[in-house]
Amino acid sequence: MSIFDKRRAAGTAAAGLVAVSLLLSACTGGGSGTPEAGSPASTLGPPDESQPVTINVDSFGGIFANFEKAGLLDDYKKLHPNVTVKYSEVQQEDDYWTSLTTKLNSGTGLADIQALEISRAALVTQQQQDKWLDIRTTAVGDANKYPPAKQGAITTEDGAVLGWGTDAGPMAICYRSDKLEEAGLPSTTEELSKVITDWDTYESVGKQYVDASGEPWMDAASGYYRLLTSVQPERNYNAEGEPTYATNGTARPSFDRAARVGAEGLTAKLEQFSQPWNTAMNTGDFATIACPAWMLGYIKQQAGEENSGNWGVLPLPQGLGGNWGGSYLAIPKDSPNAAAAAQLAAFLTSAESETKEFEAGLAFPSNSESLEQIADVTDPYFNDAPIGQIFSDGFRAAPDQPLGVDDGAIDQAITQQLTAVESNNVPPAEAWDSAMRTLEDQIG
Amino acid sequence: MTTIDAPREALAPTAPVPAKRGRGRAGERAGIGTYVVLTVTAAAFLFPFYYSLVAGSHPPAELYDGSPPLLPGPGLFRNMGLALEQADLIRALGRSLVVSSVVTVATVFFCTTAGFAFAKLRFRGRGALFGITLATLTIPPTLGIVPLYVVMSRLGLVNNLASVILPAAVTAFGVFFMRQFLTQSLPDELVEAATVDGASLTRTLFAIVFPIARPGMAVLGILSFMASWNDFLWPFIAVRNTPTIQVAVAGIQAGYTPDISVILAGTVIATVPLVIVTAIFGKQIVGGITQGAVKG
Amino acid sequence: MAVDTPTHALTGPATPRSRPARRGSVGARSAPYVFIAPFFILFGAFGLFPLLYTVWLSFFEYRLASGDPEFIGLENYAWLFGSPSFYNALWKTFTIGIIATVPQLCMALGLAHLLNYNMRVRNFFRISMIMPYATSLVAATLVFASIFSNSPGGLANVVLSLLGMEPIAWTAGNWTAQIAIAIIVTWHWTGYNALIYLAGMQSIGQELYESAAIDGANRWNQFVNVTLPGLRPTILFTIILSTIGATQLFTEPFLFGNGAGGGALGQYQVVAMYMYEMAFDIGRLGRASAIAVVVLALVILLVLINAGLASLRTRERPLPKTKTTTTTGGTR
Predict the structure, then answer these.
(1) Complete domains list, chain C, with CATH
(2) Residue range B241-260, pLDDT digits in tens
(3) A68 forms bridges with which residues in the sheet?
(4) Which of A101, A420, A441 sits opposite C84 (nearest CB)?
(5) In this predicted structure, which of A389-398, B229-238, C45-54, C237-246 has the lowest mean pLDDT?
């Protein structure tokens, strides 16, 4: 009967479509060969300046919005009138990463330049080497120089460099000078650095503050943990790429210290980047916070104009340096406009460009030369703190921590347990074991 | 599955009655208690949107200073202007209008048709096919994104609005909903009467089914339009370069740190069309009863 | 044609087991399949493939966007059934599902009943019902984060203090977080279901209420004896849909907790969040697919149970045919 024929035909067609799609998908998403070992085989020449070209950029978190604000895109247009730059940017990096990985998976839809956050760099350098262009093969090459913490993260085992560093997040401690003064504590950077000489004194001064004012010293134990781990040479993985977080000298000791601080009530038990945390920043509900360079912008916006002059920046004790965050510009391997894209990326991350951006009050540079150029920049909001000096010193001192693909999961599990210690009164030892069990379950 | 929907006992209502005086249960006037409950509920439901107007009109610091404002301030239009500047919202609104309208029309039409077939027509495999339809509802959307993108890119539809329209054009939800609705409100006798009178199924569909299904179609229309309008993750991946409104709103920023006031002002712009659509469609929920004088 | 105004009287309500419609030409016979074809074609292309891909992937170890998938057979499933986080996620999904769904559907029914009355500004009330569904997530998150703030100044804690209770750390506790999320879900979806019920109510004949009123039924009785039975198919629809929705709950807990971790102790990590975490945060797509497949099977089972129970209750009731013929009335 005709009905059944129709149904059968439809069914066959659907099955056929499915089968074909399955086959096709099985052929995608895989590596297309071994990564090049040793020096790059071919060199990408400079772009043809006579042809008009449109460079598509996919980015997140305001990276390109900042480039535009700093006037860099206009500058580039003047230098290369044949180039049009079109960028699309989304605020949340999580959304961006979901989209990027979906496109990498299918092999289509990628832009000429894709921004990459440092937290993803391990995955990129260890499992996606063949999908990204080695910048040493481009005409501009690796002319831009970066400190080890920045350069190391984007370099693969074979020495291929997969991106240009944009900004960085060197660590300092930001504090509410007005609150410290009220509590009778030293409130300028020089005075404070004399009193806070190591982590123990940071905590004891904190206790003094809590006793005097009845208010928390820092925002969250998890922030303190980040601070403590960012200055160590090894974080979760060793140089051979093995996960050592369970036993190395960084994770457990830092956890113990942060947990103790949390259990003793020195923290405001806030969740970073949540609404109450925003409010606390404004009302001064915590006196100090782990402060990567980009946190300055958050503070200014959340705390507003009325709090200008109520904040200060303290460099880490003992000349330590650490890094939290930062991004790169990378080029997908098969981009048709790779040469032009490379030239644009190198320009945007050159010393002059990054200096210009920082002086416009935007992102903190990662380019080594730029770090030297900004040494005398101060910020009136933070009581004229010499932020150029503080952060560039800190960045140069930051260790080149080996990164691993599960860093995010490990940090997340541990910081979650710190919240449990702070807010749910879980004993620290139990919390640590719980974190280890969770990680065993998730990534073991 | 097929036995559940149409109860044997004859408590299922007959075909709808033309409203006598005004709409709804004419003669049943709402008491003061009703007004109170509905007003309180409406206030609770509307509050977050109202607050986005408030928050969108003050600078962010004021929101966090411990005693946030409760009344709109002066900055709303300025922030809206900034939002429009930072992200091409107008064009995105246009695209969303196209996508959501097409999806809504397609959904309402195809789902009513399919719902009618499942509810009133007898054909081989009806039970099994309906079961499969229901089963598709249980598929989690999150993981579907990766393979769906593969399909769309093979079809060359990435950055084409079709990639956002097609997966949403007919939904299991809509089919299920219209089937239940028609089971409840369309008596068999009416369909049979039409067939006896010699009408083709298509004619029956248009002349009898659609008019009676109107309240259901109106509700389905509103819900489909909104679901399509508010969809973020899939359009974000599939039509990044020709963004719909939610994707565009996610791109609003004042730089490194998101300016929540500007973003909220942008969401206000994105939500207003929904309110308008609801107002228009809402009238249909009751109005449809009057057509197709079933009760003689 | 006399289609629009049929002359024979209508007797009785819709019953599926009445005489089958006359089979006409081949066109009539294939019409049903043509009617349902659009759904199945689109589903086949855009719904079936993702489903099959997910099932297929569950037998592989696959890191998102890197390397080749590596076949590992049932290892993902073995891991899953031994994972305490999975059972935690299932339990949380169940508890939050119940708290968030049952009161919500009851309230939606009540609201729809009220909305059905004749009143002024009814369109305004209707629009307000759907506003939560229309409100952007950014705005909703902002408001609820402030309401359920752990500090004593948050609105929820202010209300508690007015009632003479201690402020609660909403996001930290186990049941407090789940209740807060349930409240957010209820806020989001009650109006949605109310509109669905309202649409269904439009087809309940006016005379049924009138004759009930004549028989001395007050509004509550009318609700129980006229509205509820008349809405049975719609109620069943919302129950099934809410069951499925509860198992797929994601957005509200995700935004409540700023991520897929579901709270410091996983106190509100529902299974959809657990799957998302595995797929995109930890990046192991094979395991995430295994989670999806198992959840799928569980949901289908759940829906069948639900539907089976409902149909059992339906079949038990007798057929009061007499009641209906009087209420429909032959000619009017």
Answers:
(1) 75-313 (1.10.3720.10)
(2) 888 888 888 877 645 567 78
(3) none
(4) A441
(5) C45-54
